[in-house]
UniProtKB/TrEMBL annotation:
Keyword list, A-Z: Metal-binding
Protein name: Cytochrome P450
Membership in a protein family: Belongs to the cytochrome P450 family.
Domain of life: Eukaryota
Organism this protein belongs to: Gigaspora rosea
Keyword Kinase: no
PANTHER family in UniProt: CYTOCHROME P450
Keyword Metal-binding: yes
GO function terms (MF aspect): heme binding; iron ion binding; monooxygenase activity; oxidoreductase activity, acting on paired donors, with incorporation or reduction of molecular oxygen
Cofactors, names only: heme
Length: 357
């Protein structure tokens, strides 16, 4: 009770199994399963509830981004830099969920979300050529380059900070104007603002750093997965009929024009196709970890971030399969491309054409 009063922004406490004893018996007799059970309960109660309110918003933003960046394909349209286009498509729903629906129309911010990960990754890919002198030199050089040169990262961060300052001022004004009737917006930015506020002042740089962290993870995971799944889908016509039939079956069950969490969970064949693709399109270095027991690993043991990513992935793939016929440029299976142990974007084109309804 004391914790609930004074630690309002802390993670939720799993309810005690027994008075006074609590979870002591479960913890000491079966620690691994106890932690798994608690993890599952917290994710279900906290994250699942949030995802329900985000689902409609993600769909509206995804439809808008698909129309904007792909549009009408009455005749076949071959897209060469396919992964870059997917990054733009993913950016609008991610902006909508993280900083609010209004800013999903801000092209400069959308471009920052789309390109931030790639620009940081290009800097990280620089070989540690100074390590032969001292290991810390390369790290210091990297930090200096990001902070004090004309690196795109500086521009991206400033764009984010400018928008945060504007949003905070708008929300503080509404809060003062409406008083106790003011309802905080349902977006991730508001969560970061809450935990970064001390004595009535928001640490804007801290909020910006939190947003950059989540953008870096969300954009890379989601856009890579969607493009890889579509490369696999486009070269495997034997799966088209089954996946499209499942898509149509779910479409008939939709109420009010929006997918629900239940509809998304019923995409069993699409879910299986995604998971099998991601096992194949996988960085070689990641395979080393496949034999380690992880409670937040891959597949069914997903962490909250991957849970959100999979939600967005399935919605966007559902919309693309519903609207377009999709095939690889050469009509064959595209193999993953590696640079050393890392998976890199494929240069193979994807051909899109409107489905005849």
């Amino acid at each position: 009770m004391v914790n609930n009063i004074f630690l309002k922004n802390e993670p939720p406490i799993v309810p005690y199994a027994f008075p006074f004893i609590g979870h002591t018996i479960d913890y000491f007799t079966n620690t691994e399963n106890f932690i798994k059970k608690c993890h599952k309960q917290v994710i279900r109660e906290e994250l699942s509830n949030d995802m329900r309110q985000y689902t409609t918003r993600i769909q509206d933003a995804a439809k808008k981004s698909i129309d904007k960046y792909i549009g009408d394909c009455k005749t076949q349209k071959c897209i060469k830099l396919f992964q870059q286009m997917i990054q733009q498509i993913v950016a609008i729903p991610v902006v909508s969920v993280i900083v609010g629906e209004d800013l999903s129309n801000d092209d400069e911010l959308v471009n920052t979300f789309a390109h931030l990960t790639q620009d940081i990754a290009s800097a990280l890919s620089l070989p540690p050529f100074l390590n032969f002198i001292h290991p810390s030199l390369h790290t210091n050089f990297f930090v200096f380059r990001m902070k004090h040169t004309n690196h795109p990262y500086k521009k991206h961060k400033q764009v984010i900070i400018d928008r945060i300052i504007r949003i905070i001022k708008e929300r503080e004004h509404k809060k003062k104007e409406l008083g106790s009737t003011w309802k905080p917006p349902a977006d991730i930015l508001q969560l970061f603002i809450n935990v970064s506020t001390k004595d009535g002042l928001v640490d804007v740089k801290k909020v910006a750093d939190c947003l950059i962290d989540i953008i870096f993870a969300a954009m890379h995971t989601t856009s890579n997965a969607i493009s890889n799944v579509l490369y696999e889908y486009g070269g495997r016509p034997e799966y088209w009929k089954e996946l499209f039939e499942e898509n149509q079956k779910i479409s008939l069950e939709i109420k009010d024009g929006y997918l629900t969490s239940k509809d998304i969970n019923n995409m069993i064949k699409l879910d299986s196709f995604i998971r099998e693709t991601l096992k194949y399109w996988n960085a070689i270095g990641r395979n080393v970890l496949m034999y380690i027991t992880e409670i937040q690993g891959t597949d069914s043991k997903t962490s909250p971030g991957r849970f959100f990513a999979l939600h967005v992935i399935k919605i966007i793939l559902y919309l693309l399969i519903e609207k377009y016929k999709i095939v690889t440029e050469n009509g064959t299976i595209v193999k993953p491309v590696f640079a050393g142990s890392f998976l890199i974007p494929n240069s193979e084109g994807i051909i899109l054409e409107n489905r005849k309804m």
